Amino acid sequence: PQLLVVAISAIVPSHLFFTPSTFTVIYWLTIAAGLTTLIGLFTRTSAFVFALGNWAMLAHASSYGEEHHREAILCIFLLVLAFSPSGARFSLDAILNRWRAHKKSGEIASKYVTAMWPLRLVQVLFALTYFSTGLGKLIYGGLGWMNGYTLQSIIFSDAVSSGLPLGIWLAQQYDLCVLLSIGTILFEVFFFLTVFAPKLVPYFLIAGILFHSAIFMTIAAPFFQHILLYSVFIDFGRWKLLAGNAPRVFEGGN
Fold it and tell me: What confidence tens digit (pLDDT) does each residue in 92-146 have?
């Protein structure tokens, strides 16, 4: 994020850009772009503006103090949507294009197939993120990270500072913390299997939802954007939510 701030500062003087008025304008432009992206109006342009707005605000916010960049995968996903055929089928743009007869249905369907790559990219990013996190614990903490005491210390410190009774209680349950430590490592290190073994996706997604929900309730670390992005693993084709004769782009759980 700091690199983005530096890049912006090289184009626009800091005393003009980094002001409350400027970021108020950016905020409302981002909201408007998000709404037009959602309904599919000028979809790719809207998605690009929406992504840049999020990047700019988060880059600014992340330039002060300690940040863990929980929004990184989401921000990348928002930007790649602008470079994919977003809005080619289910959008106001698609409806208007069909009315104007500028595109044939076959062309729209063929473009829809290529919309898979942003979803696959996010799946890989999830696998890399979790794997690097789990591997980091093992490299710097070794097997001792799973001794229960490490997790107890982490939970107790954050729970006390955040005033979370559930976290304080959990920090006193040694055996449970041992099991949760082992489960955390297994979940993070082996999440990459979801990319290659679609049948494992439901189990890892359920575990991930429980994992991030427990983190929020015990140490107040919000990873709701991760839970939201789990939707990229869902096989909507199997659920028959795709209308008409749309191709099975989500075959195999992807």
Answer: 888 887 776 655 555 544 455 557 888 899 999 999 999 999 999 999 888 888 9
Rounded CA gap, 212 and 226, in Å?
A: 8
Residue 18 φ/ψ, nearest 5 degrees: -85, 70
Task: Tell me how far apart the alpha carbons of residues 122 and 31 are, in angstroms, rounded to a whole number.
Answer: 23
Q: Identify the residue whose tokens are 């559930």.
A: 166
- Cα 143 from chain centroid? 29
Would you state the torsion angle of the CA atoms of residues 31, 3, 77, 45, taken in this order, to the nearest 10 degrees? 50
Instruction: Quote the CA–CA distance of 226 and 214 in Å, as a whole number.
Output: 13
Q: 3-class DSSP state for residue 223? A: coil
What's the predicted TM-score (pTM) here?
0.77
Distance between CA 165 and CA 167 in Å, rounded? 5
- Cα separation values, 56 from 1, 25, 72, 177, Å: 8, 12, 12, 38
Q: How far apart are CA 202 and CA 79, in angstroms?
A: 27
If we measure between CA atoms, which residue out of 254, 16, 248, 7 comes closest to residue 112? 248
Q: Where are the alpha helices (H) located in 197-250, listed in sequence order? A: 201-219, 224-229
Distance CA 108, CA 106 (A): 5
Token pair recorded at residue 187 = 């979940």
Spatial separation of the C-alpha atoms in residues 158 and 155, rounded to whole Å: 5
Are 62 and 1 contacting, i.e. CB atoms less than 8 angstroms apart? Answer: yes
